[in-house]
Specification:
alpha/beta, Rossmann fold, 4 domains, five-stranded parallel β-sheet, 48% helix, elongated
């Protein structure tokens, strides 16, 4: 750690001065002449943008009135390209709206012209101190915080997530995890459990969207013998199995309203009745729930109980989208590449610079799950020491529509599923619902009504098979 700090301290900070008035520029240079910085002067906005492509600067001292560009536009561009850079605005403009806009766009400080050397140097010292802190944190993140339980990432959003998990895990509070599909909500729930005092007790998962509503109640609360047709023996539910540990309810937004009432009782009192039983049971569990739905909209529409939501949402955790996590994209890609290359006995060792840039430029609507799926496809379909840019474009397009998928099934089954064809003619174009029904029933027949295999072949979550069957009025034999 000392070596890392020494490396940062020995590095000469770079300061870019943007001032078209040459007399003022020479004055500011004189102000900074005794400072241990590498000061570079440019006079136009175009020069700033060119310079940004060549190197990284710690601080930019930016005049708003330039001959070719508005300084505010440069400020926005700088912030988009390089968020860690501190911007000091120097301007004769004192309009409150301009100052407010500058601060909203990430300005470190706003200095009104004319100013004395002491004013500039004090702000510059503070800005550079902040940058040293950011760089130190960045180095430490890479060394110590690139992986937290099963979560991978050293970006600022992930560091904030790790800290929040640490704080939350020490409590008994219910947690409500939100975020886009594929961001790792279940991994977050597992991390909370592993970090808590319940870590040696069970972690039980119930996917509220993966089973028909008639079965979720039994899955959650268990049942006694003879409670319903097919209940040949007594069965403990997830609530009982999780006693002393953590119960994770995934896709909580899909839970039926009637069952929500029973869940509310469990949350409030820690008690429940198994299906078909009049004997109340008591458990000690911690509840963690997750959804990618807009629960507040569901509450407004009457699809989700407001009282249950506020009971479950004692602590709210929002998982960051992959597109907001910067270099974590490459960390995850390398992790998945190493894992699947070993699993498939392939020689892959890394990515070309062009391939890495493609990964960074893509917005990843399916988040980490889509990236994982993509890397798996690259490994399966290629055999080379390095992943090239040419291996990625088509696969990125394909995985964009498969962000909720499980990993690919074996190739023979995929070939079977791909053999499903519909007979179409201009005189009789079926509705999309009819097409869905035909494809689902054909693939179900191929898999002998195995929902899990069907879901893998169709590249969707099993819960979507059940939902489609209910919507289309079909029964799973």
């Amino acid at each position: 750690m000392n070596n890392q700090n020494q490396k940062i301290q020995n590095k000469m900070p770079t300061v870019l001065l943007v001032e078209d008035d040459l007399v003022l520029a020479e004055t500011y240079k004189a102000f900074c002449s005794d400072e241990p910085i590498d000061l570079i002067h440019v006079t136009t906005g175009a020069a700033v943008l060119d310079y940004l492509q060549q190197t990284i600067q710690n601080v930019i001292i930016l005049d708003l009135m330039l001959p070719d560009m508005n300084g505010m536009d440069i400020l926005k561009e700088v912030q988009q390209r390089q968020r860690a850079c501190a911007i000091i605005i120097i301007s004769a403009q004192t309009d409150v709206d301009i100052v407010v806009e500058a601060m909203r766009n990430g300005t470190f400080d706003y200095i009104e012209k004319p100013f004395k050397a002491e004013r500039l140097l004090l702000t510059l010292h503070n800005a550079l101190s902040q940058q040293v802190l950011y760089e130190t944190i960045g180095e430490c993140q890479h060394i110590y915080c690139s992986e937290y339980h099963s979560l991978i990432g050293a970006s600022q959003p992930m560091q904030a997530l790790y800290q929040l998990i640490d704080r939350v895990a020490a409590t008994q509070a219910s947690v409500f995890i939100t975020g886009e599909s594929g961001t790792g909500k279940e991994l977050c729930a597992k991390a909370i459990h592993k970090q808590s005092q319940r870590k040696d007790k069970p972690f039980i998962v119930v996917n509220c969207a993966a089973l028909p509503k008639e079965l979720i109640e039994s899955q959650l609360f268990g049942h006694v013998k003879g409670a319903f047709t097919g209940a040949a023996t007594k069965r403990d539910g997830a609530a009982k199995t999780a006693d002393g540990g953590t119960l994770f309810l995934d896709e909580i937004g899909e839970m039926d309203l009637a069952l929500q009432s029973r869940l509310l009782r469990l949350v409030q009192s820690g008690t429940f009745y198994p299906v078909g039983s009049d004997k109340e049971e008591q458990v000690d569990i911690r509840l963690i729930c997750a959804t990618n739905r807009d629960i507040k909209a569901d509450i407004k529409a009457g699809r989700f109980r407001e009282d249950l939501y506020y009971r479950l949402n004692v602590i709210d955790i929002e998982m960051p989208a992959l597109r907001t996590r910067g270099d974590d994209i490459l960390r995850l890609a390398r992790h998945f590449l190493s894992f699947y290359a070993q699993q498939e006995n392939k020689p892959f060792q890394g990515f070309t610079e062009q391939a890495e840039q493609k990964l960074l430029d893509y917005r990843w609507p399916g988040n980490v799950r889509q990236l994982q799926h993509l890397i798996y496809k690259v490994v399966v379909l290629n055999n080379a020491p390095t992943v090239t840019a040419e291996m990625l474009p088509r696969l990125i397009e394909e995985t964009a529509s498969q962000s909720d998928n499980a990993l690919p099934a074996d190739n023979s089954k995929v070939s079977q599923a791909n053999s499903v064809r519909l007979s179409l003619s201009l005189e009789a174009i079926p509705s999309l619902e009819e097409v869905e029904k035909e494809v689902i029933t054909q693939v179900m027949a191929l898999t002998h009504n195995n929902v899990t295999k069907t879901a893998k072949l169709l590249k969707i979550d099993p819960s979507r098979i059940y939902r489609k069957y209910r919507k289309l009025g079909l029964k799973i034999r």
